[in-house]
Design a protein that fits this description.
With 429 residues, this protein is of the alpha/beta class. Helices cover 37% and strands 21% of the residues. It has helices at 76-88, 93-109, 122-132, 151-162, 184-197, 209-219, 223-229, 247-256, 264-269, 277-282, 302-317, 325-331, 334-340, 371-378, 403-417; strands at 5-12, 18-24, 27-32, 41-44, 49-53, 55-60, 112-117, 135-142, 170-176, 200-205, 237-241, 259-262, 286-289, 355-359, 384-389, 392-395. Strands 6-7-8-9-10-11-12-13 form an eight-stranded parallel β-sheet, with helices on both faces. It has a four-stranded mixed β-sheet with strand order 3-2-1-4, with no helix packed on it. Strands 5-14-15-16 form a four-stranded antiparallel β-sheet, with no helix packed on it. It is globular and about 65 Å long.
């Protein structure tokens, strides 16, 4: 019997076949009808649980989990400048650490095994992510006026430290916040920094109509045109929101092979607009799905996000056939894995063992005429019984090690954070 091995027996696949899966050192090595080989750990599904690839959240701000419900029913600019950024400046290292653990706990509970994150304090985030065992792309995030000091020097210094460390489940992106918070000079630097260090680029883009109008006023170009003019766009780009796009911009995104991230719940809640899915899909642009942060969504549940993603498109075009279940499911599996450059999103030999098990006795899945339809359109997520990431069991029979401590510590930190006297601490990066 080898170390770091896991055997999943009698699992039901989406095509209704029943197979065993053998996992070694974090990867799927064998999928057959029957495996007699011994493993260090074993999960028997008893032909009652469906196995799926772990879900991938392509855009979120996990450290904002403490701000859920704090600033609702406000437009984006007011929400950010008057509510979110001021309270974030009061968050210390312990707040960010426990907020990240709380977010990871919520994501694991609903079957997310990987997320693409944009938040401050990467070293603190990595500590929390590593302890939780989940996979993440951690953004080296910056806004010109918030970090303070020399942005390039701070980020380069952090990167020199981070790249020397061994992070099994963590990879990195450079994450300039947006074109309206980061200068042209620093956007060009970020693009060059990404190329030099083989990093992804994660940025908000064309989230609101006012962002587009201001860009035209300042640069005489729309946001995608502006980024293209400075050589920013490439297949390494993950563009969050991408709501307000012209046909010319969509053509540019296609030519540059960019990835776009649909965030339906956040876009609806902040009144930002409707993602132009039909046009992007027709252009064969890689489309992923993200929850955005808890503060602008109130949830990190990708099942719910899929439901809203599909229904919003159908009603916006009066077309019940638009964005069907298989396509929206691909957004949080295959498409996301492609964008994040990880061997996941499909259950096949050689891929990472990022997997989830669905409890078919869950009342929300009865009757079961079409499982994928049930999962997408019911939008619950409480049917995820087991979660495996990199071959390690993170949740078994709905239980996660240390979850009670995370809940208790988070509640105490939240109470303390919102009772703090006014202070303006610089965000640590």
């Amino acid at each position: 019997m080898k170390n770091n091995t896991l055997l999943i027996k009698n699992a039901i696949f989406l095509d209704k076949s029943k197979k065993d899966i053998y996992i070694e050192n974090g990867c799927i090595t064998k999928i057959v009808n029957k495996i007699n080989k011994k493993a260090e750990k074993e999960i028997n599904c008893y032909n009652k649980k469906v196995i799926l690839p772990g879900l991938i959240n392509s855009h979120t701000h996990s450290g904002m989990s403490f701000l859920q419900g704090y600033a609702d029913d406000l437009p984006l600019k007011t929400w950010l400048e008057k509510k979110i950024w001021p309270i974030e400046k009061k968050m210390d290292s312990e707040d960010i650490y426990w907020a990240m653990k709380l977010a990871c706990l919520k994501m694991i509970k609903t079957g997310t095994t990987c997320f693409n994150d944009m938040y401050w304090s990467p070293k603190i985030n990595i500590k929390a992510i590593t302890e939780m065992g989940i996979r993440a792309v951690v953004g080296l995030t910056f806004i010109d006026d918030i970090i303070g000091g020399n942005i390039k020097r701070i980020l380069e210094k952090n990167w020199e430290i981070l790249k020397k460390q061994k992070h099994t489940n963590v990879s990195f992106a450079i994450a300039p916040h947006a074109i309206y918070t980061v200068s042209k000079k620093n956007l060009i630097w970020a693009k060059n920094f990404a190329e030099k260090n083989n990093l992804l680029i994660h940025i908000h883009l064309s989230e609101t109509e006012i962002e587009v109008k201001n860009c035209i006023k300042k640069h005489k170009l729309r946001p995608v045109e502006y980024l293209d003019s400075i050589g920013f766009l490439s297949k390494k780009c993950l563009l969050a929101h991408a709501v307000w796009l012209s046909p010319k911009e969509i053509d540019i995104l296609k030519r540059r092979k960019c990835n776009v991230i649909y965030n339906p719940c956040s876009n609806m809640k902040l009144g930002s607009g409707i993602f132009p899915y039909p046009d992007l899909d027709k252009a064969k642009i890689n489309i992923c799905l993200g929850t955005d942060g808890s503060a602008s969504n109130n949830s990190l549940n990708l099942w719910e996000e899929m439901k809203f993603a599909s229904l919003l498109q159908k009603v916006s075009k009066n077309d019940a056939c638009l964005l069907p279940i298989q396509k929206v499911f691909s957004m949080i599996t295959k498409n996301a894995a492609q964008a994040l450059n990880i061997k996941a999103g499909e259950i096949k030999e050689g891929n990472l063992a990022d997997l989830i098990l669905i409890d078919m006795d869950n009342i929300n899945l009865i009757p079961n005429h079409n499982l994928l339809s049930n999962l997408v359109y019911t939008g619950q997520g409480n049917w995820v019984s087991d979660v495996i990431c990199n071959g390690k069991i993170l949740m078994r029979n709905y239980k996660i090690k240390g979850e009670n401590e995370i809940i208790e510590k988070s509640q105490k930190r939240i109470k303390k954070l919102f009772s703090k006297s006014k202070g303006r601490n610089k965000i640590k990066n």
